[in-house]
Amino acid sequence: MKSAAIGVSVHSGWGAVVTVTGQGGADEVLDRRRLVIIDSKATGAAQPYHYIQSKEIHAAEAHLYRCAAESRRLAVEALTRVASELSDRGFVLVASALLLSSGRPLPALADILASHPLIHTAEGEFFRQSFSSAFEHLKIPLTRIRARDLDDYALKAFGNAATEVRNRIDGMGRTLGAPWTKDEKTAALAASIVLVGVQSQRHASGP
Description:
By secondary structure, the protein is of the alpha/beta class. It has a single domain (about 1-205), classed as Ribonuclease H-like superfamily/Ribonuclease H (Nucleotidyltransferase, domain 5, 2-Layer Sandwich), CATH 3.30.420. Helix content is about 55%, strand content about 20%.
């Protein structure tokens, strides 16, 4: 089986998910898709913190608990399908990368609900946690990378070739076809970083 890695850029209720393979960077994009991890018919699922903003705290917590369980279940199912399809093609997922925003810890729920900017931050973290839990369930090693640190990670992973790797990823839309969005490009770069990290570890440990 050939090694592959998966990168995820998360939004409210979904993630841009890109899987790459290759030596020393993303030589090939094996898969790219938008994974929806909510029941779109469920009230308050897409923006759970917005939905509970005016609710009593216990009702708010109960809603978050239900939404978290459902999003985790859907993330596990979706990523299991991705892994299975890759396996059928002769690839195994050896690493994953999840892009973060600021990475700052969130305050208590009551404080979050009192601040509209924190509500947006919390919703992003909410769905990142769903993907994170799914990778943990599937036993796929996960690296969390703040988006603003992505260039630093790329430089550490690829050295002087970092710009070349990024440019190659940016230009993949010409062969993959549109859309090749910023979310997909950053997810692909993050996946390439963790893949080359696994390859370097294997090389260092020898045969």
